[in-house]
Design a protein that fits this description.
The complex is a heteropentamer, with 2 copies of chain A (about 240 residues), 1 copy of chain B (about 230 residues) and 2 copies of chain C (about 325 residues).
Chain A: E1 2-13, E2 16-26, E3 30-35, H1 41-48, E4 55-60, E5 63-64, H2 70-76, E6 77-80, H3 92-98, H4 111-123, H5 139-152, E7 157-160, H6 169-180, E8 185-189, H7 193-199, E9 202-207, E10 210-216, H8 222-229, E11 231-235, E12 240-244
Parallel strand pairs in A: 3-8, 3-9, 6-7, 7-8
Antiparallel strand pairs in A: 1-2, 1-4, 4-5, 9-10
Helix pairs in contact in A: 3-5, 4-5
Chain B: H1 2-10, E1 19-20, E2 31-32, H2 41-47, E3 51-54, H3 58-68, E4 71-74, H4 80-93, H5 97-112, E5 122-128, E6 133-135, H6 140-148, E7 151-152, E8 160-162, H7 165-171, E9 175-180, E10 202-207, H8 208-211, H9 216-233
Parallel strand pairs in B: 1-2, 3-4, 5-7, 5-9, 9-10
Antiparallel strand pairs in B: 5-6, 6-8
Helix pairs in contact in B: 4-5, 6-9
Chain C: H1 2-17, H2 31-66, H3 78-92, H4 98-117, E1 119-120, E2 123-124, H5 126-150, H6 155-163, H7 171-190, H8 192-197, H9 202-207, H10 212-234, H11 240-252, H12 256-280, H13 290-308
Antiparallel strand pairs in C: 1-2
The chains are: A alpha/beta (about 240), B alpha/beta (about 230), C mainly alpha (about 325).
The structure holds adenosine-5'-triphosphate (2 copies) and magnesium ion (2 copies).
């Protein structure tokens, strides 16, 4: 059963052109999108979320994205953009609570919403920062707040654009493990290939806006990576590996 | 309307006035009810008047009259003739017809004393120096000048106009009247202004408070100007 | 806090009913006094409260919607385009009841123009919107200047109308404005959660299930309609819409639930106070234009806040 | 492009010397015509060019310095605080040659106040600065309103003065303004590279070796002085300072080398054209306030640009 | 000869406190700063650049930072902040040229400046984007433009706050190799420890605003990293390694 189905997707902007013939993603899959800078990873996410409008069909559970009203979309998928901002002096707690918006009944958050937010704050190691203003955080702390907001949305599909950017190794591991242990579908551009290989099941390799390969973990060969990134890749050399304590 | 105060006084109707705006000096017994531009509605209501005399401030006056249920009289004369017409209309409203007849007659008398002017001067009237504004043909001053035997340079069909100094030069006026008063408080004498170097004109300073209000004073102004024109041509 | 402020507000309302150019004995008024109190004073006090709330509310919404700390009824062109209609109506000597209607009309035309100009390919860009608004403001002001210039007989009416104030109030106008305010407040309060999300970048906001463009449009249209109604009845009262939302954000936080409420309440409080002062500050019945007092009262308070709590104003 | 524009500008200058209420034969003028041409027309045309350049230049600098597309002589409080002095001088009936001096004085006081308010712990925050400026603007406007109200007799003088125009031009004033403009232009042009860097975040700018606070201060002070000098001589001519820099950015790119030059040139061009129109549009010597024409001419052009080239305006 | 010398540096902000007793960094050293989110890495860089004002002494070549005028500082060090922005529509070329500002003679850029910028554009794989507006780039492309600007400054000390964030693996390698091959001192907070270990000589480990250790590559033991990050670290497990082609 395909949860997300992309057919014949085309999008162009100036001299960049994204083209995807056919991708199906099943419920619960963890999909990493790999590719160089400018290969179209963020653009693809934005297309999948309906933030950009391309040609072709994108459908969730056999329903075309076009036909899904805005407020229903937020119950289908959530998005962590590559860069995000908060322009008013909201505090951490408030920003995380924003994530409950799609579930808010009427016009205020229920106690349930608040309890869930609390849990997210705890999971992302933010409890001690809850009253701090968002703008007064370090880069990694801001990123975690935004991640907490996204996870708080509890959508079955989670789009994360480079979720570990600015995060230290411990929080990176915590978050990937957290995601790995849950049922949600995760689709995420990642630059750290070793991390991707460890935590994701499936890999979409993009190059110049085209799908170079759509493979599972054991098919992710050095040759394929070489082709994707134009770098030499060897396998199995010594390095540190990290494990969440 | 401050200009109408003089008329009311001359019609012996001072005691009928219950309220006045802040820059009316006549009628010490009347209560002040704010400025003529923004009168105080509560105070006016408390005075419960039957008639409101106003000049041009149509917007507020209509609303106000509706609210306090009084009759409205617009005092807006643009010529000497209209001053007299409106005087008699006003007199009718306040039942002072006899006084009005006398007053109007007295004004006609003044005009009869005018000397004929052969060599009619072309006149321009400065209202403010900065920004330079001059009187237009709808200003009472235009009619005063004409009646006194001058040629009022037609600057435009308005009460006052922002004006271009070079247009003044081009019109070659013989007489440049400049008023001094609250509107033009400390103008530099035009004769000393660099821009009028080439102007072959006489300059006459007048008092704004005397000249700008259209009431019985206007007729005296005609006489004064006429005398000046007469002396000037000799 | 909320309760305390409401209490202060109610006391202020009551007190300012007793302040004015004629002294009124509240317990045994004479018939004329009764008439002044109920027919003039009370509706005026209530009207100033309603208008203050309208302006505060619109500013609160504008700043968030346009993501600019200077967004208010001026920079969005709403105030001037509404004023334009009123000025033309006054200058042309149209019947009085038409003045607010025409003001509302030009206000809505201005609104529509700004909205059209700020939309390309179906997307609204807040920077474009505020630039279009500010140009609309300048063009409308220029036409107003022209009217002042051209209709010299109406100059003083125009100038003083523009300065703003609660000149002639009747229960009908009051009811109309109160209904508009109530409608707008309920609408915004019902969207407070959504409005909060506009503080996020567009993509995040959108992915939380709000149609950013539509929300912006609705917020902009309703806020502008508020301003148009307020301006058409009272002339231009600046400051409230710009400063009050900043003040309440700095005192009570950014959450729009609170900001909408406190912006309205503080706006109302400020205008009631300012109008009471404008009625009574000059002995002898002369009234100061209320905008002057609003600006002085509000300005000093704002500069004080700017000195003491600046980190809570904008961008953290 | 630059050369073409300069050529157009020179032609416009020459042509507008021949436009006005009196027709002048440029080849064999009568003595009166000569006098009008050299004593009145020419200095006025040059004056409008100089003032236009001053306003355009100040706006170009403000927008970058305060990082806000709405920053101009109004939102920084410069125009109103200068106008305040002039209005008071007119209302109190001080000798006319003092008017520009007093305007300059209050302009500088306003500038100093805004500057003081926007500085905490030695750091200047652009948002605080523009908020302080906008409040200064509102408070000064309120006092101006008060003057209009209180000095009823001067109302029309004040209103007309505020609408802007080239009232009394002589070679002395012209020289003064031209010198101020030249000084400011050279100063800014000498800092064009540094000003560019203000488009970066503060840390990047600072690490490139510029003292961001000092640069902001200098830019703000000089731009405000420009506005104060311009306003004190000509009243409030809006629009030029806000719109012209956006127009030149959209046409000629963001680089401040270009933007300073084109903002000045286009500002001058706009005001020369607007003044020529204001002198000649009503036959018979009456003048339209120049601000009205500026806003209409500029407004239409700007809205056209906003439709066609919006991506080049702000934030890409 | 110590090029950079920090003594008794103290800085506090709300409940965060940074304290550094003594660090000396010699000319040409490549120093990575490792530490969790919020441990004070960016704050330290800002202190070293004089963007924040703490207590204690910071001196460059025995001259106190306080005494070095602003414009001289730009010839001593350059900085890539963790996040940067360009608010006006400047194009890539112009932004990179900004980096030459400290060397501009008078008020315009010399041909030399332009040539150097050209070279930076080439080195950072930006030639094809040179006329593009900065705001119309992908995340990694923006980062490269900013890196090009910083390198264009040609300062002897380069502070790079997470230079590889948003960069793909090829560009990461290119940049680290570029830096490794040059004489400049590089001081850089980095989250990818394997990369850091490979390209840097010396490691400052920060925790809660304090210097946990100041070590060279071979002293960077799993135990130390465990202490720094609170994660289990093992050494020598298989992983991909990447080499610039
Ligand atoms: N503007 C600010 N106001 C108040 N506290 C701040 C501010 N910026 C950062 N902090 C706090 O200072 C501490 C150090 O922040 P810093 O940015 O130096 O961390 P960092 O090591 O760079 O983290 P990261 O890896 O997330 O970038 C953190 O606890 C952070 O919450
Ligand atoms: N606003 C924009 N306008 C024009 N072109 C853009 C814009 N944003 C991105 N691009 C171009 O579109 C292409 C794809 O960009 P995209 O952001 O999807 O890349 P990406 O794979 O996410 O890269 P990165 O790893 O750097 O985030 C790039 O060539 C980029 O230059
Ligand atoms: Mg991307
Ligand atoms: Mg950091």
């Amino acid at each position: 059963m395909a949860e997300l189905r992309v057919e014949n997707l085309q999008f162009s902007r100036d001299d960049f052109r994204l083209q995807l013939d056919m991708v199906e993603i099943k419920s619960g899959e963890k999909v990493a999108i790999l590719g160089e800078n400018g290969s179209g990873k963020s653009t693809l996410l934005q297309l999948l979320c309906g933030l950009l409008q391309g040609h072709g069909t994108i459908s969730y559970n056999n329903q075309s994205l076009q036909e899904i009203p805005f407020n229903k979309r937020a119950q289908l998928f959530s998005l962590l953009p590559q860069f995000s901002e908060v322009i008013f002096p909201f505090c951490v707690e408030e920003v995380v609570l924003f994530g409950r918006f799609p579930h808010a009944q009427g016009n205020s958050f229920s106690d349930e919403d608040k309890k869930l937010s609390e849990q997210q704050l705890e999971k992302l190691d933010l409890l001690h920062l809850r009253k701090r203003q968002f703008t007064q955080l370090s880069g990694g702390e801001k990123r975690r707040v935004m991640l907490a907001r996204v996870l708080n949305q509890q959508a079955p599909i989670i789009y994360l654009d480079e979720p570990n950017s600015s995060l230290d190794i411990r929080h990176t591991l915590e978050i990937f493990e957290l995601l790995g242990g849950r049922n949600e579908t995760v689709i995420s551009p990642v630059h750290d290939i070793n991390l991707a290989e460890r935590f994701f099941d499936r890999f979409l390799l993009l190059k110049h806006g085209r799908l170079l390969a759509d493979v599972t973990g054991d098919q992710l060969t050095p040759e394929l990576l070489t082709e994707t990134y134009d770098v030499q890749v060897t396998c199995g050399t010594a390095a540190f590996t990290f494990q969440h304590q | 309307a401050p200009a109408a105060a003089d008329i009311i006084e001359k019609l012996d109707a001072s005691e009928m006035v219950v309220g006045k705006t802040r820059n009316v000096e006549e009628f010490p017994q009347a209560q002040k009810v704010g400025s003529h531009i923004r009168p105080n509605l509560e105070l006016i209501t408390a005075l419960d008047p039957d008639l409101l005399i106003i000049s041009s401030n149509k917007f507020f006056s209509q609303e106000m009259a509706k609210k306090i249920d009084a009759e409205l009289f617009y005092y807006t004369p643009e010529t000497l003739e209209e001053i007299l017409q409106q005087t008699s209309q006003l007199a009718q409203l306040i039942d002072r017809k006899d006084q009005a007849l006398k007053l109007i007659g007295a004004q006609w008398q003044k005009l009869k004393r005018l000397e004929p002017i052969k060599n009619k001067p072309k006149v321009i009237y400065e209202i403010t120096e900065v920004p330079l504004t001059v009187a237009g043909s709808k200003n009472i001053i235009a009619d005063i000048i004409k009646a006194a035997g001058g040629i009022f340079i037609n600057t435009g069909h308005r009460k006052m106009l922002r004006f271009n100094p070079e247009a003044i030069l081009a019109q070659k006026p013989n007489l440049y009247i400049w008023q001094v008063g609250p509107m033009n408080q400390a103008p530099s004498p035009p004769a000393e202004r660099g821009q009028y170097r080439l102007l072959q004109a006489d300059y006459l300073q007048v008092d704004q408070l005397q000249f700008s209000r259209a009431n019985t004073r206007s007729f005296d102004n005609v006489l004064e100007l006429n005398t000046y024109f007469h002396e000037r041509q000799n | 806090m909320k309760k305390l402020l409401i209490l202060i507000f109610v006391i202020t309302l009551a007190t300012s009913c007793l302040i004015g150019s004629t002294a009124i004995n509240p317990f045994s008024p004479s018939p004329v006094e009764r008439d002044i109190l109920l027919g003039l004073r009370l509706p005026r006090v209530l009207f100033s409260a309603v208008i203050g709330a309208m302006l505060g509310l619109s500013g609160s919404v504008y700043q968030l919607t346009l993501k600019n700390p200077l967004a208010d009824s001026f920079t969005t062109g709403a105030a001037s385009s509404s004023a334009l209609g009123a000025v033309l109506a006054i200058a042309l000597g149209l019947p009085l009841p038409l003045v607010p209607l025409i003001a509302l009309g030009t206000g809505l035309i201005g609104l529509f123009t700004v909205y059209r100009l700020s939309k390309t390919n179906g997307v609204i860009n807040p920077v474009t919107m505020i630039l279009a608004g500010v140009v609309m403001n300048i063009v409308a002001s220029a036409v107003i200047s022209f009217a002042k210039y051209f209709f010299e007989d109406s100059l003083s009416s125009i100038v003083f109308w523009l300065m703003g104030g609660f000149f002639v109030v009747d229960w009908g106008k009051l009811t109309l404005c109160a209904v508009v305010l109530l409608f707008a407040y309920l609408l915004f309060a019902g969207k407070a959660l959504q409005l909060n999300l506009l503080a996020l970048d567009e993509h995040s906001a959108q992915s939380l299930g709000i149609n950013v463009d539509r929300l912006r449009t609705v917020a902009f249209v309703v806020a502008t309609a508020l301003v148009a109604v307020a301006v058409s009845h009272t002339g231009i009262i600046g400051f409230v819409g710009l400063i009050v939302p900043h003040v309440s954000r700095s005192l009570f936080g950014s959450d729009m639930h609170n900001n909408l409420f406190f912006s309205s309440l503080l706006g109302a409080l400020l205008l009631v106070l300012a109008d009471a002062a404008s009625r009574s500050i000059i002995p002898g019945g002369a009234e100061l234009p209320v905008g002057i007092i609003t600006a002085l009262l509000g300005g000093v308070f704002f500069l004080y806040l700017l000195q003491t709590r600046r980190e809570r104003f904008w961008h953290g």
